[in-house]
Amino acid sequence: MEWNNLGERTVYENRWVRVNMADVELPDGRHLDHTVIRLRPVAVATVVNDKNEALLLWRHRFITGAWGWELPSGGTGEGEDPAAAAARELEEETGWRPGPMQLLLSVDPQPGISTSHHRVYWSDRAELVGEPSDDFESTRREWVPLKSVPDLVARGEVRSANAVAALLMLHHLRLG
Asked: Minimal CA–CA distance to 101: which of 61, 73, 66?
């Protein structure tokens, strides 16, 4: 059963987001206005060391009013290689320069309303090159054991959808 987008009009736009209203035709012929949030692709990164610990950020999100563990991430620039963007974000937000980045997974956290496409990368090595240049991104950066990931997720300490998916996948691949 396919919905058809017959056209969109922009109701708000800035350099980060464009909000459109789509004229959608349902399979039974009815029409509805549907909000569509158009965002740049997102590159996400972590490193897992030889002790099976993942490099995470502890941060507060004012929008949800919650603290939690997250992975470094950010928008991919026009024409920027997503793996390079992930490595850049990891270094800017943690001070660690990753080795070669490997694609772990791709997710669309809210495909019913948003074009936000997240590519998650990881590396099995990194070098500490200094303090994070974007130190405002998190309160602290820590190497967190992958074996603790299921409990962290169950307690709500990992709330970001891309981090939940990536960390559970890494837990399974490295420890499962």
From this structure: 73
